[in-house]
Design a protein that fits this description.
Growth Hormone, Chain: A, 16 helices, globular
C-alpha cells in the first residue's frame, strides 16, 4: 500500500473500531479502583496515601513493561501481544474482588499494570501498519477519543454497580468486560494478525534487542518524544486525580459541580481530538498543531488556577481547556510515527508512551503534598507549567527530525 492509496473504508473502520475498543478498555481499567477509594478506605482501614500507592504502582509497572512490550510487538506481532495483555489486565481486575486484605491489592495492581503495558505499542503498531496512510490522522484521533471515553465511563459505572451491589461485584463485571473484548478480537479481529517483520539486511526477526535498537531509543529525537509524553501525563493526571478536590477548594463549589467540570474536560478533549484528527490528515506541520494547542491549554489552566473564571463559567472553562489539549493528540502520534524507522514502530511507540506511565506514577504523590499543604491553586498552575514544557519538547522533535 502506498502513502496515497486508500483501502476500502469499511476495512479501515473495522480496524479503528476494534483497536479503539481495546484502548477504551485500557483507560477504563485506569479508573476502576479510584472511584471506590472511599469504600476501600473503610473496608480495609487504610489511608488515602496508602490507596494512592495502588495507581502509582500500576503505572510504574506499566511504564516498565511498555518498552519491553514494544520489542515483543515487533517480534511476535501486535495482535497476539495485545490479547495477552488485555487478558492479564482483565483477570487481575477480577482478582481484586478475591482479596481479603489491602496488601493483596498491591501485587494485583502491579500485575494489572504489566497487562496494561502492551496497549500503546500494540494499538499504534496495528493502526500504523493496517490503516490506509491517508486516514492515519483520523485513526490516531479515534484511538485517542476511545481512551477518553473509557476514562469517562469508569467512574459512573463503578459507582453505580457498587451502589446497587457491592464493590467486589463491580470489579468482577469490569474484568468480564475486558474478557468479552478479548473474545471479540478472536472472532472478528483475525485479519489484524501481522507477521513478524524481518530485517532486510540479515533476515533476522525484528524485535530482538540490539545495540542499534538502544541507540535508536536513546537518540535525541526519540528522547524528546519520551519527554513530551512524560510531561503531558504529569499534567493530565493532575487534572484527573486532584482536579475535583482543587476546584472545590478554589471555587467553593459542590463536589457534583466539580465532577461535572471534570467530565466536561474529558468530553471537551474528545471533541478536540476529533477535530485534531481531521487537521492532522490535512497538514504536514503537526508540530505547530501540537505546540499551539498545548500553549493555549496551558493559558486556560493558569486562569483556572488563579480563580479567574467566574463560578458559573467553570464547567465551560474546563471544557475549553480539554478541547485545546485534545486537538494535539493525533498530531503528536503523527510526529512519533515520522520519528520511527520502518519496522520499529512497536518499540518506538512502546518506549515513548512509557513516558505517560512515568508521569502518571510520579505526580499523584507530589500533587498530594500540595493538597496536604492547602495549595489547591498550585494543582492547576502545575498543570499549566507542565503543558508549557510539553510544548517546548515539540521544538526539539521538529528540529532533529
Amino acid at each position: 500500500m502506498t502513502d496515497t492509496a486508500l483501502a476500502p473504508i469499511g476495512r479501515d473502520l473495522k480496524i479503528m473500531g476494534l483497536v479503539g475498543t481495546a484502548h477504551a478498555a485500557s483507560h477504563f481499567f485506569h479508573l476502576v479502583l479510584p472511584p471506590l477509594f472511599p469504600i476501600l478506605k473503610d473496608e480495609f482501614g487504610v489511608s488515602y496515601t496508602e490507596l494512592g500507592l495502588l495507581p502509582s504502582l500500576f503505572f510504574a509497572a506499566s511504564g516498565f513493561g511498555q518498552s519491553v512490550a514494544g520489542f515483543l510487538v515487533d517480534h511476535y506481532g501486535a495482535r497476539r501481544i495485545l490479547l495477552i495483555g488485555l487478558s492479564i489486565l482483565s483477570l487481575a481486575v477480577i482478582g481484586y474482588a478475591m482479596v481479603g486484605a489491602f496488601w493483596m491489592l498491591i501485587p494485583l495492581s502491579i500485575l494489572a499494570g504489566l497487562g496494561n503495558a502492551v496497549f500503546h505499542p500494540a494499538d499504534l503498531s496495528i493502526l500504523t501498519s493496517k490503516v490506509s496512510p491517508g486516514r492515519l490522522g483520523r485513526a490516531y484521533g479515534t484511538h485517542a477519543i476511545s481512551g477518553n471515553l473509557g476514562w469517562a465511563a469508569a467512574p459512573a459505572l463503578m459507582i453505580t454497580l457498587a451502589h446497587f451491589a457491592d464493590w467486589r461485584t463491580a470489579v468482577i463485571v469490569a474484568g468480564c468486560i475486558g474478557l468479552a473484548i478479548v473474545a471479540a478480537f478472536l472472532i472478528w479481529g483475525r485479519d489484524l494478525a501481522d507477521e513478524r517483520q524481518l530485517d532486510e539486511s540479515g533476515g533476522h526477526p525484528r524485535g530482538l534487542p540490539t545495540l542499534a535498537d538502544v541507540r535508536l531509543l536513546f537518540s535525541a529525537t526519540i528522547l524528546s518524544c519520551f519527554a513530551y509524553f512524560t510531561f503531558l501525563a504529569a499534567a493530565l493526571i493532575g487534572v484527573q486525580t486532584f482536579g475535583v478536590t482543587a476546584m472545590v477548594a478554589i471555587y467553593e463549589v459542590q463536589i457534583e459541580t466539580a465532577t461535572a467540570a471534570l467530565t466536561a474536560f474529558l468530553l471537551g478533549s474528545a471533541s478536540g481530538i476529533l477535530l485534531g484528527g481531521i487537521a492532522a490528515d490535512r497538514t504536514s506541520r503537526h508540530d505547530l498543531i501540537a505546540m499551539g494547542g498545548m500553549i493555549a491549554a496551558a493559558i486556560a489552566f493558569a486562569g483556572i488556577g488563579l480563580g479567574l473564571p467566574p463560578t458559573y463559567l467553570l464547567i465551560a472553562a474546563l471544557a475549553v481547556a480539554g478541547f485545546l489539549s485534545g486537538t494535539t493528540s493525533p498530531s503528536r502520534d503523527m510526529l512519533v510515527r515520522k520519528a520511527a524507522p520502518k519496522g520499529a514502530s512497536g518499540r518506538v511507540f512502546g518506549f515513548v508512551y512509557s513516558g505517560l506511565d512515568l508521569g502518571s506514577a510520579v505526580m499523584p504523590l507530589a500533587l498530594g503534598i500540595l493538597m496536604d499543604n492547602d495549595r489547591p491553586d498550585l494543582i492547576f498552575l502545575s498543570v499549566s507549567g507542565f503543558l508549557i514544557v510539553t510544548a517546548a519538547t515539540v521544538i526539539e522533535v521538529r528540529k532533529r527530525r
